[in-house]
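We modelled the chain as a single entity of 251 amino acids. Its sequence is:
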Amino acid sequence: MERAADVLVQARRVLVITGAGMSADSGLPTYRGVGGLYDRELTADGISIEEALSGGMFERDPSVSWKYIAEIERACRGALPNDGHRALAAMAPKFERFCVLTQNVDGFHKSAGSRDVIEMHGTIHQLKCTRCHWQATVEDYAGLDTLPPACSDCGGVVRPDVVLFGEMLPQRAVSQYEQALGEGFDLVMVVGTSAVFPYIAAPVQQAAMQRNATLEINPQRTGISDYCDVCLQTGAADTLVALQKALQAAA
């Protein structure tokens, strides 16, 4: 922990990459694994959850995708940002740049007060029409009358503004990310993600090659652990709170 705190104190420009483990302390379930929503091989419809939540399925039969989208949203409803999200937001003013790139679609980083956030996979709180330009921000899906919902302007099918399996990442988020990487960071901190996506692993590997600092917070080792200067095999929230306190004490 001391090494991690030293790395953070010495940094000026920080990129924080967060995954599902970041929101675990908010009580959000995963759809796989122990305690997951879908730890069986197939869903009740006889298909994998990845197929049910794929862009192809949404195009063929949006009612199937919406069935599981709504089930996941109900399981997460009422959850709030945890101390880890708030610790990251509190750290940000201490740095020249403190950018949070998240794979999560819960919107917790922004709710906790972080301003420089790239939501690479979108957010479940933003709905959009697949036919026209209608969009809306919602707190939850309790007020949706039908599934799939219909657009109030044109009657088209409405969907959450999130990346489904098999879909491309949104160009706006990718452009934000590429611009941020181009401006450079002297610390890359990865929190609660297995880093299986190339866009997650690449900045860590690049930082290591350029001899910039790298820090990983994850209960298990991952594919990027060997590239990190410091690996804390701990949960996200308590560790980030401790690091925020160390940063405050060093000010």
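As a brief sanity check on the tokenised model: Residues 28 and 76 are 6 Å apart (CA to CA). The beta strands are 13-18, 97-102, 117-119, 122-129, 135-137, 158-162, 187-191, 213-217, 230-232.
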